[in-house]
Amino acid sequence: MKKFTLLLCVSLILLKSLSGQVCCSLVGAVDHGGGTSSTQWNTHWPSHFDDRNAFKWIFGFNTTHTADDELNIRYGTTISTHLQASHYIGQKSIGYVQVEGSWLQLEESLSFAQSSSDVNQLGLRFGFRHLLPGKWGFFFGEFSLPKAPKFSNSDFAFTTGAVPIGTVGWTNRLQTPWFLDYPSILPDVSISFSYAKNQKNKDDVFMDDAVNAHLASSIYVAESFSISPFSTYQSQKLLAPLSPWDTERQTRWLSVINIGIDITPSHHKWNWLHLRFAWPIYRWASNGNFPDGTEPVPRISLTINTGGLIN
């Protein structure tokens, strides 16, 4: 049981650190939407007013710290980077390709060795974003190809694999009834839903289906910065190793609701900087409790995101 718990937690943190490819891939149509993953700030979404002949590029850097010092599984600093290029496909769709990498520190006190290791992972994504008719928002899809993670400690006993992942979802921004009278206080609400599914079965991969949703808005403070309160819902299916007595792997669903805030400077010289605080307020497990390493914990992250056009 301890071995499965550690394998499971390594899978979870790798997926989270690699730009949130399963549990956190909440695509947002607006930069200030809050609750979206760090890879979605300043991304290219279809519009009737764009130059459809230009490519857009985005580079992002993210570092995250979790409050888990008292737990049996502890994650140190997590760093991820990504570079994305996008272009119009037709009049209402944008296609993109993204390369990304992550690095994290992992410590465990479950085994006799109480070992630690740095973990590195690279990945590639292909996706599209499509503008729906009227005011129905956007539909999006993505195919992720992560490489197997590499562990710096060759004696680390608990390693995990990686498989291709497909994601589909919908996002939209809705204006609030008071947006004309109070344009600085929650003028609109962004909402997103997504579903992710592994495209291959593998014995050393312990996550599969993932359902995500987010709801957020923004408050503009004295034209200096914006505060974006948000709430996210994450539910994911965990897979146990196949035992000699079972013909199918046992499963468990874990669900978490988080609340948080994003802080972004409004001035164009600083609006590439984003600070995020997130706190879990509700958890639910379909069978038993959350295993070690999967417990929801508060997080703080800093993201740097910049981009431009290539004509």
Question: Could you characterize the architecture of this molecule?
Answer:
This protein has one helix spanning 2-17, and strands at 55-66, 73-88, 93-108, 116-131, 138-146, 150-151, 165-175, 188-198, 207-216, 219-221, 225-239, 251-265, 273-285, 299-310. The chain is mostly beta strands and 311 residues long. It has a twelve-stranded antiparallel beta barrel.
Helical content stands at under 10%
Number of helices: 1
The SSE string, one letter per element, is: HEEEEEEEEEEEEEE
- Report the principal-axis shape: globular
Topology, element by element:
Elements: H1 2-17, E1 55-66, E2 73-88, E3 93-108, E4 116-131, E5 138-146, E6 150-151, E7 165-175, E8 188-198, E9 207-216, E10 219-221, E11 225-239, E12 251-265, E13 273-285, E14 299-310
Antiparallel strand pairs: 1-2, 1-14, 2-3, 3-4, 4-5, 4-6, 5-7, 7-8, 8-9, 9-11, 10-11, 11-12, 12-13, 13-14
What's the gist of this structure?
The protein has 311 residues and is mainly beta. The chain has one helix at residues 2-17, and strands at 55-66, 73-88, 93-108, 116-131, 138-146, 150-151, 165-175, 188-198, 207-216, 219-221, 225-239, 251-265, 273-285, 299-310.
